[in-house]
Amino acid sequence: VSTISRAGVPNLAPYSFFNGVSSNPPALLFVTSRHEDGKKKDTLLNVEATRQFVVNVVPESLAEQMNITATEYPHGMSEFEKAGLTPAPSDRVAPPRLKESPVNFECELHDTLQVGAGDAGSGTIVVGRIVLIHVDESILSNGKIDYELYHPVGRMGGMEYSRTRDRFTLVRKKYVPES
User: Fold this and answer.
1) Which string of DSSP letters, residue by residue, matches 76-102?
2) What is the pLDDT of residues 115-135, one digit of tens each?
3) What angle do CA 86, 110, 91 make, to 5 degrees?
4) Residue 89: Cβ-neighbour burial (10 angstroms; 0-12, 13-18, 19+)
């Protein structure tokens, strides 16, 4: 998730709790936890200040750089710079998107929900309305994302991640009442 502070400092941090939640309006969420001392992380502070963020989906080729952005750097230090990644201008929100990511969701804050007392380990659900989606043409085939070209990764928990190279399809059944 990329954000920008009121002072204009860009921030980039990985979030494993992330999902689409609505198609009308298009919306997604991510969850940010608190630091061990209970303080809010830069991402949440920036979203609260600007009401905007960008979700940048991580392909396998960026896994190591993504891990670098998980480092708890001092407030105001740019993870883009530390990980050797490139901020790219967004079209509808102020925070930059990640140029190296083939899929970016520009979002405006819809709402937040605090889960827990606000101490270490508690979380804040951040729901954003998607205002623009960027998809790099290099991962498209016949107008759709081709996962053989894309290879996004997901965090399973702890230090474990998953690859999306082994997929299967399940066609949804339709209920047909008996006559």
Assistant:
1) T--HHHHTT--EE--SSSSSPEETT-S
2) 999 888 899 999 999 999 999
3) 35
4) exposed
| Beta strand residue intervals within the chain, DSSP E | 2-4, 10-12, 18-23, 26-33, 52-56, 87-88, 97-98, 103-115, 123-135, 140-141, 144-145, 153-157, 160-163
Contact 129, 22 (CB under 8 A): no
Task: Copy the structure tokens of residue 126.
Answer: 């951040």
Per-residue pLDDT tens over the stretch 93-123: 999 999 999 999 999 999 999 999 988 889 9
pLDDT, tens only, 8-37: 999 999 988 889 999 999 999 999 999 889
Cα distances (angstroms) measured from residue 13 to each of 3, 23, 25, 119, 131: 9, 25, 25, 20, 20
Work out whether the CA dihedral 100, 101, 102, 105 comes out positive or negative.
negative
- Per the CB < 8 A criterion, the answer to whether 139 and 130 are in contact is no
Q: How far apart are CA 98 and CA 85, in angstroms?
A: 7
pTM of the model: 0.91
